[in-house]
Design a protein that fits this description.
With about 200 residues, the protein is of the alpha+beta class. It contains six helices and nine strands; from the N terminus they run ααβββααααββββββ. α3 packs across α4.
């Protein structure tokens, strides 16, 4: 199966030829990975005899997969231009991300609300990375939901369960995260508002 056909299974089909060209042009090792709870994608710069490496989680919806892919290619381009002298999500990276997004905007690949959220994010100098909640929320709205609820959707004091079976009670929001009490060990944990959890029946 050729690269374009494979990529079109994970991202909007009209975007696949562009990404395939980038993989070839930059001689990048591009890997579609299993789900990683700590990150959506990853970029590794060349080291010794190894070239550029990008990996993207296989369970992302097509728009999230494409945005994450462009995000990592922007890291690649920034490294090519500046090596380690530029901040990971600094102005150089933002300029490259915006530049590399343009072909997909021109093709109208994204729904209007996602495109506008990306533009808002890029025009906001205070936003330090793609952990921007507005962008993450817009992308997640296209996920296929499987019996899960986001923490921000739960009422206060609701009891929820993680995939590993641990139970928590939702507490107050502290700036960007929610303080939640683990009912198994009594410890406090901070949760991203978009974390997907299982709601306890009867809570």
């Amino acid at each position: 199966m050729d690269k374009i056909t494979t990529l079109a299974q994970y991202m909007p089909a009209s975007a696949a030829p562009i990404i395939a060209k980038w993989i070839d042009y930059f001689q990048c090792e591009f890997k579609i990975s299993k789900n990683r709870s700590t990150k959506l994608g990853d970029y590794r710069h060349p080291f010794k005899d190894k070239g550029h490496k990008i990996s993207i989680n296989n369970d992302l919806n097509p728009y999230a997969f494409l945005v994450t892919t462009v995000h990592e290619f922007a890291h690649l381009l920034t490294w090519n231009d500046h090596k380690n002298k530029a901040k990971p999500h600094g102005i150089e990276w933002k300029q490259n991300f915006k530049r590399m997004m343009k072909p997909f905007f021109d093709l109208a690949v994204f729904p209007p609300e996602i495109q506008q959220t990306i533009l808002n994010y890029l025009d906001n100098p205070a936003a330090s990375s793609c952990t921007d909640l507005s962008l993450a929320r817009a992308l997640k709205s296209y996920d296929l939901r499987k019996h899960t609820t986001r923490i921000e959707e739960l009422p206060s004091n609701a009891v929820f369960t993680l995939k590993d079976g641990r139970k928590f009670k939702k507490g107050e929001r502290m700036r960007k995260r929610y303080r939640c009490l683990c009912l198994d060990n009594g410890n406090i944990y901070l949760f991203n508002p978009l974390a997907e959890v299982l709601l306890e029946t009867g809570s």
